[in-house]
Amino acid sequence: MAIEREQIRNFAIVAHIDHGKSTLADRMLLSTGAINEREFREQILDDMDLERERGITIKASAVTVHHKAADGKTYMLNLIDTPGHVDFHYEVSRALAACEGALLVVDATQGVEAQTVANAYLAVKAGLEIIPVVNKVDLPAAQPEVVAEEIEHVLGIAAEDCLYVSAKSGLGVPEMMEAIVRQLPPPTGLADVPPRALIFDSVYDDYRGVVVYLRMFEGRLRKGQTIRMMSRAVEYVISDLGKFRPKQEQVKELVAGEVGYMIGSIKELAEVTVGDTVTDANAPASQPLPGYKAPQQMVFCDFFPASGHETTELREAMERLRLNDASFTFQPIHSDAMGFGFRCGFLGLLHMEIIQERLERESNLEVVQTAPTVSYEIGMRDGTTIRIDSPGDLPDGSLYEEIREPIALVNLIVPADAIGNVMKLAEERHGVYRKTEYLSVQRVILTYTFPLAEIIYDFYDRLKSLTRGYGTMDYEVTSYEAGDLAKVDILVAGTKVDALSIICHRSDAERRGRRLLLRLRKEIDRHLFEVVLQAAIGGKIIARESIAPLRKNVTAKCYGGDITRKRKLLEKQKEGKKRMKTVGSVDIPQEAFKAVLEAGDE
């Protein structure tokens, strides 16, 4: 069925986590006849088991449906369902680059949340037309009018423009479909010019190679055509073109304004750059489309196989995951304590948790994971800057001038009665206050800047606890700034253990070092000599704990007699312990490293 360009609408659904994006997408598929009642199930676009279990979207999904509008015309709607969690921010920005409009979904019981604000700003920055949708209006606790006022106050979108719907029951969905057709602009590109298509995602298929998700901005692509990826200057022949309806359906060509997929015997995901422009190899476009930055890994940790001989299996499992997640990186490392493993980079803590769970579930591996760290910029004395992602990589103190840490701009949406507790928590974590904005009498947005290292570990859990579960946060790394930071080394019996060193604020160094030593003291077995545990900054010891030696009663067999005999035996034992202390080595069991590393330093 031929569709005119004026009858195409490309839009994304954006919202805070758990506000009903995926359910709304399912309802739209049902209302347009893309699926029937028998096929209908929750989260039809979320095809990962993990997405279903957690009830979240991890990968953006694209689908094409046809809708017969009130004006009698049939419109092609290209819908992209996006994730709501802060860690998958980059998925949202990629999806918005392929659209002209966005549905901003807000829960009628929860109101405007941290990611609602962040995603709305992303859509505005991308120049998209926004339709505000208040979802879950059929719930007993729903306050749609109050939420509409919040949207107007925070985002500047008129309250009367809000649409009230229930994705679960279908209430208000027909009116929303009409608003999409009426309010969102059609695509602008021409069909009779050299093709330019934006790659906004790609996945790996075991049988067909890489499946590339495209948004056609200009021209047309046909099956059998030779195409060129403009940034990499490599060429492929299109073997298959199609759309998701929601299952893959082949088409003969993709024309300007349409969204679909392309397959061209591409063997590896690394050959496809998201944000690249696809054009005709024989009659190429003169300029590529403006792409977007590659996602920047912000959180790092080390993964080790629980049993040392599984290193090869762990590498293979990670390579399989890397095929479908270009934002996950890893490189081999070796630790004296844990053996061979991998330093992994993630977008955030949820991303890290999901990768670990997929490794254990899909590959049946048990993984030991170190406490998460962030990357630091080191200003060297020779004027160069290097980036490190592990405290053990920090150069000698004489070689660098300053350590710069990543700074995050954080929006905290909390109940008004929890402001005092949240501000106290922010002060503990070296937060710098920026502003307070009232959403309503009951809820406020607190804006702070934090060192990223202070919020990646357990900050979100503490926030939820202090706000009885109602607090939400969104963060964006804005810069690297020099701070009063120090590397804390851990010494066991005078020997430095690199795997346990941390970088932290100098004012916290003693507290954190002491906590590490206390945990280590519980885990290391007693030896026949005293084992000294120390935390040090450079050559200065800032904390010390000791593990008492095992004592053998050498005088047990002395019944009576002169005291000098007992003294002689005790002196002999003392000399033996002294000699053992200088030549004996402390056995640190793997469990000790696991306990310290898995629990972090809190």
Write up what this structure looks like:
Helix content is 26%, strand content 33%. The longest helix has 21 residues, at 563-583. A hairpin with a 4-residue loop joins β10 (226-229) and β11 (234-237). It starts with 7 loop residues before the first strand and ends with a helix. With 602 residues, it is α+β, with helices and mostly antiparallel strands. It has 5 domains: 5-183, P-loop containing nucleotide triphosphate hydrolases (Rossmann fold, 3-Layer(aba) Sandwich), CATH 3.40.50; 196-280, Elongation Factor Tu (Ef-tu), domain 3; 299-371, Alpha-Beta Plaits; 377-482, Alpha-Beta Plaits, CATH 3.30.70; 486-599, Elongation factor 4, C-terminal domain (Alpha-Beta Plaits, 2-Layer Sandwich).
Query: What is the CA-atom radius of gyration, in angstroms?
Result: 29 Å
Based on DSSP secondary structure assignment, what is the total number of beta strands?
Answer: 32
Number of domains as seen in the coordinates: 5
The residue ranges in which pLDDT falls below 50 over 5 or more consecutive positions are 46-60
CATH third-tier fold name of the largest domain? Rossmann fold
The CATH superfamily of the largest domain appears as P-loop containing nucleotide triphosphate hydrolases
State the strand order across the main sheet: 11-10-16-7-8-15-12-13
Terminal Cα span: 61 Å
What's the CATH architecture of the largest domain? 3-Layer(aba) Sandwich
CATH class of the largest domain: Alpha Beta
Q: How large is the share of residues in beta strands?
A: 25-35%
Shape: elongated
Mean pLDDT: 82
